[in-house]
Amino acid sequence: LKEENAILRSKINKLQIFSETQADKMRKLEKQLEENKIKEEKEAQDLEAMVQHVEQNLQLMTKRAVKAENNATKLKQENARLQVQLKNYKTENEALRSGQSASLAVVKQNADLALQSLLTVITNSRSSIKQLVSGAESLQLVADLLKSIDRISEVSEDGQ
């Protein structure tokens, strides 16, 4: 009976040592799991900050593109108007040099030139507007893509 008790005590001691070893491993794994969770949360926050920064940059680029397109359109219109005015002045100068007063033909020619310039401005404006709309659609697609990246990272965090 004493021998059997000694054997059982020995087994109990071994089991206690094994249990303590397993408990230590469990604590280490729990600590490592907590560290991993903290690291993943920080990475998710960093990713979110990066996405927000990219979205802000996209908004700034969009505003700059719109402003540049508006300026380009205004400059084209001003250029066309000045070219028509220059042609009118040249025609008037030629008429004055030759001693002729402005006749109905000169006035009609000036009106035709002004009409042609106006049609050119309209055509250029339509082209610029189409390019601007296309650029805005592209920027919207990029913004939507960035938003979906954000949603994917949120789903990954919830799933793990």
UniProtKB/TrEMBL annotation:
GO biological process: positive regulation of cilium assembly; positive regulation of protein localization to cilium; regulation of cytokinesis
Keyword Coiled coil in record: yes
Entry keywords, A to Z: Coiled coil
Gene Ontology cellular component annotations, sorted alphabetically: centrosome; ciliary basal body; early endosome; midbody; recycling endosome
Signal peptide segment: none
Annotated coiled-coil segments of the chain: 19-99
Entry keyword annotation includes Coiled coil: yes
InterPro entries named in the record: ENTR1
Family statement drawn from the similarity comment of this UniProt entry: Belongs to the ENTR1 family.
Protein name, as recorded: Endosome-associated-trafficking regulator 1
Provenance organism: Ardeotis kori
